[in-house]
């Protein structure tokens, strides 16, 4: 890590940040970061208020089981569950009524749908895996994105779905079976220990392990769950994982780096270090149907590079999604 990047982790906390942290129940350093991310107290408060209000539950219709999603709508309505299309997500639905039932239906058991946030759904659409392609999904459990990728590929081609945790891989395998996925092999392994797969994949998804602070609308405990030191350690691992992920991409192929975090430390700074490590990659414009704020190019008086504005950020107060970061990287 370059010396000037270290100041990003040496954050001072203002009185305004302390006051907001006390009011909303956060660790103060987190609020200071949000003030720097959004550039104003006004938008920071908008974000914090949106977290307090939470998000509706949402589901993804699985066309590997329900070839016509209107059939799913009708079946759920008969059970007292009312859903409404998420306009920008072809298979996404808000749960308008009956949220408490959504994980306890026969349709859920038989794989008609997956309970998934809209930001998480957006990831697979942005990856845009072609049919009959060869794709890797790294750190993939519990399988929301693996099963979505398989759906978009209509069970053609091949997916390698990797997770190092045997317990999480068990849930991954269960969801692959439940969602009727047939084109996926699960590998229980540390990504950093993968061998003989360099250049093997047309598209690679790295939904990197992260602080998960983008999930604040669902998980209030994230307000106080990580110190700045832990975020620094997460960043260091993310850089190592991103470097490994690029190696798995064939020439001309695509890596999608994503996290359910809005922290610059876990996102743009990771991409900055990746760009400095390799000359054979470039950032591609990353948006989905007009959605997404540009990536952050300057933070804590550190210039991260103008190309990072091509990355994509999602926020609850602007896009009604959980917080997410997505960035397409092409290997030349």
UniProtKB/TrEMBL annotation:
PROSITE patterns according to UniProt: SAM_MT_RSMB_NOP
Record keyword Isomerase present: no
Gene Ontology MF annotations: RNA binding; tRNA (cytidine-5-)-methyltransferase activity
Keywords: Cytoplasm, Methyltransferase, RNA-binding, S-adenosyl-L-methionine, Transferase
Residue ranges the record marks as coiled coil: none
Domain of life: Archaea
Gene Ontology terms: biological process: tRNA methylation
CDD domains hit by this protein: AdoMet_MTases
Keyword Methyltransferase listed: yes
PANTHER family: NOP2 YEAST -RELATED NOL1/NOP2/FMU SUN DOMAIN-CONTAINING, TRNA (CYTOSINE(48)-C(5))-METHYLTRANSFERASE
NCBIfam families: nop2p
Name assigned to this protein: RsmB/NOP family class I SAM-dependent RNA methyltransferase
Annotated source species: Fervidicoccus fontis
């Amino acid at each position: 890590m370059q010396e000037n990047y270290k100041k990003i982790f040496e954050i001072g906390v203002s009185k305004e940040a302390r006051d907001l942290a006390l009011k909303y129940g956060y660790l103060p350093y987190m609020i200071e970061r949000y003030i720097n991310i959004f550039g104003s107290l006004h938008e920071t408060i908008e974000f914090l208020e949106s977290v307090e209000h939470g998000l509706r539950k949402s589901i993804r219709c699985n066309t590997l089981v329900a070839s016509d999603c209107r059939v799913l709508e009708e079946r759920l309505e008969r059970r007292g569950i009312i859903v409404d299309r998420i306009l920008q997500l072809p298979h996404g639905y808000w749960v308008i009524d009956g949220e408490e039932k959504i994980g306890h239906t026969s349709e859920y058991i038989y794989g008609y749908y997956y309970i998934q946030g809209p930001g998480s759904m957006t990831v697979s659409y942005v990856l845009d895996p072609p049919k009959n392609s060869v794709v890797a999904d790294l750190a993939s459990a519990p399988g929301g994105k693996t099963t979505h990728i398989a759906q978009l590929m209509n069970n053609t081609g091949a997916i390698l779905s990797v997770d190092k945790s045997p317990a999480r891989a068990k849930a991954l395998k269960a969801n692959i079976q439940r969602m009727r996925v047939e084109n996926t092999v699960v590998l229980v392994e540390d990504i950093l220990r993968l061998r003989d797969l360099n250049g093997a994949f047309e598209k690679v998804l790295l939904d990197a392990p992260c602080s998960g602070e983008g999930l604040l609308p669902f998980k209030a405990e994230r307000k106080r769950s990580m110190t700045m030191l832990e975020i620094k350690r997460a960043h260091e691992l993310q850089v190592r994982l991103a470097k490994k992920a690029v190696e798995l991409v064939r020439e001309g192929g695509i890596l999608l780096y994503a996290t359910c975090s809005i922290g610059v430390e876990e996102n743009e700074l990771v991409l900055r270090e990746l760009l400095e490590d390799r000359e054979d990659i470039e950032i591609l414009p990353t948006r989905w149907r007009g959605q997404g704020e540009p990536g952050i190019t300057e933070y804590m008086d550190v210039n991260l590079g103008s190309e990072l504005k091509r990355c994509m950020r999602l926020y609850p107060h602007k896009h009604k999604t959980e917080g997410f970061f997505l960035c397409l990287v092409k290997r030349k």
